[in-house]
Hints:
The chain is an alpha+beta fold. The chain has one domain (6-99). It is built from 3 helices and 7 strands, in the order E-E-E-E-H-E-H-E-E-H. Strands 1, 2, 3, 4, 5, 6 and 7 form a 7-stranded mixed sheet that branches.
Amino acid sequence: xxxxxxxxxxxxxxxxxxxxxxxxxxxxxxxxxxxxxxxxxxxxxxxxxxxxxxxxxxxxxxxxxxxxxxxxxxxxxxxxxxxxxxxxxxxxxxxxxxxxxxxxxxxxxxxxxxxxxx
Length: 118
């Protein structure tokens, strides 16, 4: 993924900026679960279909890994769809952090002393 360029489904804001768009996952067990649509190329059948289904302010824009990580931290999507393939949001976030050289926290076992009940 290090050299992979991602294109995100975005909302075109006034002033020419774009914001990465999140969508509600309709068939998820948890109401309000969010998803994010990404693509590995700017044009394709899936992209055209997503643009047709959206409103006029929906665009597909190249986004940096840092932009994507910021969006992941803000919206906390449970799923990321890359070219239509589903990836767990936590897995995709870890992939971005690794590519950006952000060290991942390694789990460590912490043993707590037994409480003195006497």
